[in-house]
C-alpha cells in the first residue's frame, strides 16, 4: 500500500464537525467544573460535624405517593435529573451517526470498538478481583465501565492541555457510545422487576413525542408533558427511568425536512443547544452533590474501604481496565485493518485519552446505587472506589498529556492557522488522506 493511499486512524475530521465538537466541549467543560465543585462540596460536608444535616437533606422525601413518586431528593436526582442527561446523550449519539463524521462506518468503527473494549476490560478486572469474595460483590461488575465526559473535560481545562481535534472527537464519541452502552446495561442487568403493562403504556407517549418532532413541532407545552408521562411510565415499569431519556432523544430528527433550509440547524441540534446547559450546568452537578457525599470515618474507615474487594475492583477497573481496554482495542483495530496511526500523533496520546476514560464519575455512581441498593456500607465503599479511581486516572492522564503538551501546542497552531482569511483553517482545506 503506497503512502498516498495508506489507511490512517485518528485523523482530524471535517471543519464543520471539528467546530461543532469544539463548541460542545466548551459547554461540557463548564459543566464539568460545576460537577467537580458539587462533588467536593458534598464530600467535605459529609465529613464535618454537620454530616447529619447532609444525610437528612439527601433522604428528604418529596412527591405524590398516589403516583408512586414519593422519592428522596437523591432518588429524584438519579431517576429524574439524569434522564435529562441521557436525553442529551441520545440526541448527540443520533447526531453523530446520522449527520456527523461518524456516519461513515469506517470512521465510526474505531470509537465504537474502543468504547466496547473500554467497558469489557474494566468489567473483567472487577470480576477477577471479586471472584470468590463476599456474597453479592459481583453485582457491581458494571460500576467501573463508564466514562464521565464532563469530568474528563474539566480535567483537561484544569491542566490546560491543547488536545488535538482528532483526539477530542475520539474522546467525545467514545464517551457518548460508552453512555449508550451503560444505559443498556442498566436496563438489562439492573432491572429488578419488570411491569410489562406500564412498559407497554410508555410506548404511547414516546410514539406521540416521536410523531410531534417528526412533524417539526417543537412546542415545550406539548413535548414536555409527553416526555414527563413517558418518564413516569418507564419509572413505574421497573426499568430505570433514565432509559426514557435516551429513547426520547433517539426520536428527534437530525436532518432538515424537505423544503427547509439545509444550512439551518436540525431539530436535534436545536434541542441540544437548549437542553445541554440544563444538563451540564444543573442536572449532573446536582446528582453529583447527592451521590458523592460519603463519610470516610477517618483513617480506620478509609482502611476498611480500601481493604474491600469491591473498592479495589472499582479502582483497578477504572484505571488499569480503561487504559488496557481502550488502548488495546484501538491498537488491534489499526493492525487488523492494516491502518497506521495519524503521523501527527503517538500511541502515548491514545494511552492518555484512555486514562481520561477512567474518569468514570456520574454513571459509575449511578450504577453503584443500583447494584447495591439498600446496602449503605457497600454503597459508601463504592463511592470511595469511584472517587479514588477517578482521581487516580485523572492524575495519571495529567502526567501523560502534560508531557505531550508541547506537541499539542504545535498541532493547535496548525489547526487554527488561516493564512487566506476565509474563516476556515488551512489544514481543513487540504485534500484528505485515506481513512
From TrEMBL:
Bilayer topology annotation: Multi-pass membrane protein
Compartments where found: Cell inner membrane; Cell membrane
Main localization category: membrane
Residue ranges crossing the lipid bilayer per the database entry: 29-46, 66-88, 108-129, 141-159, 171-190, 196-213, 218-234, 240-257, 278-299, 311-334, 346-372, 384-401
InterPro entries the UniProt entry points to: Na/H_antiporter_dom_sf, NhaA
Entry function: Na(+)/H(+) antiporter that extrudes sodium in exchange for external protons.
Name under which the protein is recorded: Na(+)/H(+) antiporter NhaA
Organism of provenance: Nocardia rhizosphaerihabitans
Amino acid at each position: 500500500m503506497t503512502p498516498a493511499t495508506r489507511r490512517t486512524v485518528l485523523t482530524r475530521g471535517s471543519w464543520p464537525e471539528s467546530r461543532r465538537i469544539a463548541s460542545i466541549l466548551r459547554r461540557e467543560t463548564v459543566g464539568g467544573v460545576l460537577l467537580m465543585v458539587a462533588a467536593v462540596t458534598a464530600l467535605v460536608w459529609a465529613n464535618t460535624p454537620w454530616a447529619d444535616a447532609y444525610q437528612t437533606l439527601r433522604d428528604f422525601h418529596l412527591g405524590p405517593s398516589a403516583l408512586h413518586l414519593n422519592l428522596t431528593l437523591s432518588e429524584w436526582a438519579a431517576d429524574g435529573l439524569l434522564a435529562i442527561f441521557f436525553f442529551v446523550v441520545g440526541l448527540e449519539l443520533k447526531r453523530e451517526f446520522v449527520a456527523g463524521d461518524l456516519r461513515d462506518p469506517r470512521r465510526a468503527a474505531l470509537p465504537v470498538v474502543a468504547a466496547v473494549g473500554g467497558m469489557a476490560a474494566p468489567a473483567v478486572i472487577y470480576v477477577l478481583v471479586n471472584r470468590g469474595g463476599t456474597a453479592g460483590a459481583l453485582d457491581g461488575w458494571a460500576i467501573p465501565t463508564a466514562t464521565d465526559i464532563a469530568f474528563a473535560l474539566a480535567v483537561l481545562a484544569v491542566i490546560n492541555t491543547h488536545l488535538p481535534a482528532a483526539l477530542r472527537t475520539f474522546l467525545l464519541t467514545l464517551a457518548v457510545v460508552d453512555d449508550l452502552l451503560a444505559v443498556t446495561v442498566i436496563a438489562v442487568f439492573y432491572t429488578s422487576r419488570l411491569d410489562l403493562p406500564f412498559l407497554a403504556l410508555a410506548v404511547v407517549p414516546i410514539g406521540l413525542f416521536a410523531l410531534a418532532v417528526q412533524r417539526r413541532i417543537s412546542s415545550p407545552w406539548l413535548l414536555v408533558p409527553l416526555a414527563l408521562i413517558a418518564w413516569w411510565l418507564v419509572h413505574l415499569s421497573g426499568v430505570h427511568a433514565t432509559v426514557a431519556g435516551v429513547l426520547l432523544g433517539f426520536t428527534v430528527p437530525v436532518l432538515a425536512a424537505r423544503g427547509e433550509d439545509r444550512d439551518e440547524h436540525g431539530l436535534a441540534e436545536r434541542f441540544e443547544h437548549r437542553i445541554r446547559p440544563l444538563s451540564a450546568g444543573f442536572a449532573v452537578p446536582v446528582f453529583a452533590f447527592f451521590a458523592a457525599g460519603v463519610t470516610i470515618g477517618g483513617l480506620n474507615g478509609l482502611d476498611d474501604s480500601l481493604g474491600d474487594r469491591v473498592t479495589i475492583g472499582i479502582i483497578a477497573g477504572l484505571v488499569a481496565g480503561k487504559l488496557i481496554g481502550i488502548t488495546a482495542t484501538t491498537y488491534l483495530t489499526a493492525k487488523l485493518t492494516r491502518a497506521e496511526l495519524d503521523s501527527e500523533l503517538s500511541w502515548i496520546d491514545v494511552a492518555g485519552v484512555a486514562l481520561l476514560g477512567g474518569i468514570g464519575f456520574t454513571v459509575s455512581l449511578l450504577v453503584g446505587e443500583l447494584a447495591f441498593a439498600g446496602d449503605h456500607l457497600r454503597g459508601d465503599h463504592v463511592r470511595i472506589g469511584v472517587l479514588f479511581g477517578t482521581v487516580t486516572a485523572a492524575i495519571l492522564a495529567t502526567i501523560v498529556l502534560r508531557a505531550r503538551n508541547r506537541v499539542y501546542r504545535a498541532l493547535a497552531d496548525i489547526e487554527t492557522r488561516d493564512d487566506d482569511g476565509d474563516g476556515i483553517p488551512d489544514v481543513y482545506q487540504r485534500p484528505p488522506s485515506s481513512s
